[in-house]
Specification:
Elements: E1 3-7, H1 13-23, E2 27-32, H2 35-47, E3 52-56, H3 62-76, E4 81-84, H4 101-129, E5 132-139, H5 150-170, E6 175-182, H6 195-208, E7 213-215
Parallel strand pairs: 1-2, 1-4, 2-3, 4-5, 5-6, 6-7
Helix pairs in contact: 1-6, 3-4, 4-5
The structure holds NADP nicotinamide-adenine-dinucleotide phosphate.
Length: 218
Amino acid sequence: MPTLAIVGAGPQMGAAIARKFGAQGYQIALIARNRERLDNLTSVLSEDGLDVASFVADVRDHQALSRALLDAEKHFGSVDVLEYSPLPASDYLQPVLETTREQAQAAFEFSVLGPMTAVETVLPGMRKRGTGSLLFISGGSSLVPAGTVAGTSIAMAGEAAYLTMLHQALAPENIQVSHLVVPVLIGPGEALGNPTALAEQLWRLHADRDRFRVVVGN
Ligand SMILES: NC(=O)c1ccc[n+]([C@@H]2O[C@H](COP(=O)([O-])OP(=O)(O)OC[C@H]3O[C@@H](n4cnc5c(N)ncnc54)[C@H](OP(=O)(O)O)[C@@H]3O)[C@@H](O)[C@H]2O)c1
């Protein structure tokens, strides 16, 4: 069975993506910082019949993130799809004149170095198998900077640039890189930001393998 690793797995997109891929026959590795929340999500999804295991890591901790993904590979046999969508901290969502250098650096670690670590860890296996998908979700400030959320605007622009280059480099190797940009609030009551509908869009990006970046609502 193929395996999906969700980096930054939480109750909204994390759970919806796990359900979508789980229904398609994927084993699911959940990665986030808080063991108790991960255990809760794991038991809810397991009760629904999904094959789920969880691994603790902070995406800003290079070694911990790499170890969690390697542990997931060891547990399930491979990571065939990587999905990266941790929810940014409020520190990264402050006005530009109130954003410190330290906050910008933390946002960069979160949105650029975290993705690079995750890719570095799972890509060798994908290349060996000659296939794989690297899927990323970010907010609208990754494409249009918003001075009210300065940290993510700076850092997610870097993430968007990295993903563009990654897509160009890996397309000839049958490794799909896709970037789902969500410029609206995510929540069950949101028309465009409904997690189940967004998870469906992410699945299509993985399954159809014909689009790199999709901006929700465009
Ligand atoms: N929520 C929105 O309104 C919104 C709007 C536009 C775009 N987005 C994007 O959509 C994606 C998912 O958002 P969501 O609200 O649906 O989130 P979610 O999947 O419900 O939860 C994300 C999880 O990320 C984990 N996380 C946060 N910081 C982390 C870190 N440093 N290391 C590891 N894990 C971390 C948190 O778990 P722990 O606390 O256990 O680590 C959290 O539960 C994100 O990429 C976000 O940028 C969200």
